[in-house]
Amino acid sequence: MLNTKTSSAIVAVTDVERARNFYQNILGLELNGEGMGGVMSFRTGDSELIVYPSRFAGTNRANAVVWGVGEDIDAIVADLKAKGVTFEHYPDDEWMQRDGDVHMAGEAKLVWFKDPDGNILHLNSM
After folding, report:
1. Residue 126 to residues 20, 23, 114, 119: CA-CA distances in angstroms?
2. Residues contacting residue 5 through CB under 8 Å, at least 6 positions apart
3. Beta strands across the sheet bearing 108-114
4. Which helix (H) or strand (E) holds 30?
5. Dihedral angle at the C-alpha atoms of 87, 91, 94, 95, nearest 10 degrees?
6. Predicted confidence band at 92 (pLDDT cuts at 50, 70, 90)?
7. Which residues contact 60 (CB under 8 A, 6 or more apart)?
8. In what order do the strands lie in the sheet with 40-44?
9. Which domains does the chain have, with CATH numbers?
10. Which residues form the VOC domain (predicted)?
11. Are 58 and 17 in contact (CB under 8 A)?
12. Nearest to 9 by CA among 95, 120, 94
């Protein structure tokens, strides 16, 4: 039933203008449209990221959005870091070790960072 339908990620924020700046200017996403109540749609690859105001923003303690960025991961991490993004660091374990801001899991490179409301965003090289 849903296997032929397009889905999109959705992220709650407390401050629409702060979120607009982060997603548009820091992450470089194209604002695709705006709706009532401060809802924004950003183009990201072949899909959309919906950003909407909610008093429950940032309460999710798991990944909210993930991007598969392939071999561009190192350049993207450097660009985001230059724009002031701080990356999350998780403890090394048997399947994942960290090299600077990038976690390594076999051949995969992984990074996590938060938006201004604390939503966890994830990039991977896969």
Report:
1. 27, 22, 20, 21
2. none
3. 63-68, 120-124, 108-114, 102-105, 97-99
4. strand 30-34
5. -20
6. confident
7. 119, 120
8. 9-13, 47-53, 40-44, 30-34
9. 1-54 (3.10.180.10), 62-126 (3.10.180.10)
10. 5-126
11. no
12. 120
